[in-house]
Amino acid sequence: MNDMEKLNDKLISILNEDMVSIILSNPKKKTGVTKVKVRPLEMKGEIGFQFTRYEGTQVFHENIAKDKALHMLMEYIANDFKQAQIITVNETITVLSGGKGNITMIARKVKSERKMPLSHNRQKTYVLPEGQPVPFLIDLGVMTKEGKIVQKKYDKFRQINRFLEFVEDILTELPKNREVTILDFGCGKSYLTFAMYYYLKVMNGYNVKMTGLDLKEDVIDNCNKLSEKYGYSEGLKFLKGDIADYNGTDKVDMVVTLHACDTATDYALYKAVKWGAKVILSVPCCQHEINAQIKNELLAPVFQYGIIKERMSALLTDALRAQYLEEQGYRTQILEFIDMEHTPKNLLIRGVLKKEAASVPDNAEKISSIENFFEINPTLRRLLKDN
Question: Which of 86, 107, 125 is the last residue of a domain?
Fold first, then answer.
């Protein structure tokens, strides 16, 4: 029995009311569908499946019978996506699809069974499932000891899961055959850091060495105590330090920067590029630099409104950061995030270092014209030019 036949048999066995969700991610093609989510539902008294397809900024829903759902999943995994995450009531299965049709399946049993209703209005399936107690979420007051979400904490629970969806999308970019080094700059209270470690290490079995960096000594001390309490201290440590001056390593697989204020984000992105990080996840905050520099005689009447100038400066800052990363060989996206506790900013810059040698269109001249038009000289541009 070949890999595709094994996959077909596995899907037949799990396409029933015991399936919780299937998420297809990491597309093989640069255009078209970027993600597909599948969940079971009741269709005229029989089991069916709702496919949710993501194409750019558009989302499409389609309810499909079991036989057709099986065929579509096989086609998607064989031709369109590198990864599938399958969650059932008693196991989690990761499917990796190679370029030559080779399929790898990694199954992990879950301790507690979870049954999901099949109605159209069924509760959303999260990366961290409801009903499964998670230590750091209990300490945060997000979950009860039984794994039930505290009603007032649903926003935080949604935010954590939304962030993990971004991590889920780049999972196959991280090596499974060696230690994965991850740095989180400006980690703060670190609930997203703990969530990322839990997802990678506990749920998906990655050999992770993660370091959180922050300037507040009391915050760092508390995070280290929690890491020891949860049994994570071997792979998750927190240090007091500044992003710009950090030199604790010379090779990193993934750099995360959440609500790093103003140019601290630029220094973190520069460090990530310098280390050749395979993945960058950055939620910028408080972009003051360009707001203080930006000038343009034509737009002067618009810039007299402070809030408009501020928002235009913030959007310009992040768009240029993404383009600077493109110049350094990253495939970048600017994605919508959920507002963070520390900032109303809700954009995330995701960069994945390209494996292929093909070059992107050279936008250097156009970017230079934009910088001249607004009379700006961003920190990330200077750092990259100087080195």
Answer: 125
